[in-house]
Design brief:
Elements lengths: L2 H8 L5 E5 L5 E6 L3 E6 L4 E7 L27 E2 L24 E7 L5 E8 L2 H6 L4 E9 L3 E9 L5 E3 L1 E3 L2 E3 L7 E3 L5 E4 L5 E4 L4 E2 L4 E6 L4 E6 L4 E8 L3 E6 L1 H7 L11 E8 L5 E3 L4 E12 L1
Antiparallel strand pairs: 1-2, 2-3, 3-4, 5-11, 6-7, 7-8, 8-9, 9-23, 10-22, 11-21, 12-21, 13-16, 13-18, 14-15, 14-17, 17-20, 18-19, 19-23, 20-21
């Protein structure tokens, strides 16, 4: 569907506009009295969220990100689905599933009763997806842009057998100085340290970043806070449907090795991901659905 048709069908005057973005992908620009956002229809990915009157974006988006069919966009909120991490069956399929590198459908746009904007994107199984993952599904991403950014990833099993998934909002937050950042809400939680051979460890105190960090936290609470004194803000992450969380920063060596990151990007970004990962596996019965929800709120210091 072309940009003109998308605007006719789903544009909202002065609030929701479709345009041709980088790589020729259809982008959605949302702006209301509370916030603005940028969404890529390719990958079903929020790229930017900025409260009204503020100059700092919630999201980190790499200046070297790929905008090419079949590639993931580095930054914003990539969607990992129907698996998180390596192929769980060892078949050589791409890490993090297959929805972060294909075009989604625009299902609906609307203005809510309190003046927020909602954008709903979706995917359903096709012969191509069946060849990768042989299950029938409908996937919806419900995005609400207001004083907070609210994301709901809804998986409906339209097949006749139970399906099992892992998944994530692989959220890249923009931070002022990684050396000053700390993450609270994970104190006393066990985690799998993927930067140290997957060993299980316990978090003592707030999470700080001074080297590569790649951890899956287990049995997490609902609220996690990223404290960012350099930007004079706190990012509150509230989740539903998730018992695990991932904290990731590639640090200097890996950042330099990644073609879609600048060498020093690790200083300006931190991923704190709302996940169903590791043992947090979700089973969905035929005709049923599961909702993974993350809400992001900025509090200024």
């Amino acid at each position: 569907m072309g940009i003109a048709q998308l605007n006719r069908d789903h544009g909202i005057a002065g609030q929701v506009e479709f345009f041709e973005g980088q790589g020729g992908f259809p982008f959605i620009r949302v702006k209301n009295a509370k916030a603005s956002a940028l969404i890529s229809v390719y990958a079903g990915q929020v790229l930017s969220f900025q409260p009204a009157g503020k100059t700092d974006d919630l999201m980190f988006l790499s200046q070297k990100a790929y905008y090419q069919a079949g590639k993931a966009i580095k930054g914003g909120v990539p969607i990992c689905w129907p698996w998180f991490g390596p192929d769980p069956e060892g078949k050589g399929r791409a890490a993090h599933g297959f929805v972060r590198n294909r075009m989604w459908d625009v299902i609906e746009t609307s203005v809510t009763a309190n003046g927020d904007n909602q954008v709903v994107l979706g995917l359903a199984d096709t012969p191509e997806t069946q060849a990768i993952w042989p299950h029938a599904f409908i996937l919806r991403l419900e995005i609400i842009i207001g004083e907070t950014l609210n994301l709901a990833l809804v998986t409906r099993n339209t097949g006749d057998q139970a399906i099992s998934i892992t998944q994530a909002f692989h959220t890249y937050f923009s931070v002022g100085d990684i050396h000053q950042v700390r993450v609270s809400g994970l104190e006393g939680r066990q985690y799998l340290d993927k930067a140290d051979g997957g060993q299980q460890k316990m978090q003592s105190g707030a999470v700080t970043i001074s080297s590569e960090v790649d951890r899956i936290y287990l049995d997490v609470l609902d609220d996690i806070i990223v404290h960012d004194p350099a930007m004079k803000r706190r990012i509150h992450i509230a989740s539903q449907g998730s018992q695990t969380a991932v904290v990731w920063n590639p640090w200097a060596r890996i950042s330099a090795e990644m073609a879609d990151l600048q060498d020093d990007d690790y200083l300006r970004m931190l991923c704190v991901e709302t996940t169903n990962a590791a043992t947090d596996i979700i089973t969905i019965q035929p005709g049923s659905e599961f909702r993974l929800i993350a809400n992001y709120r900025i509090e200024h210091m």
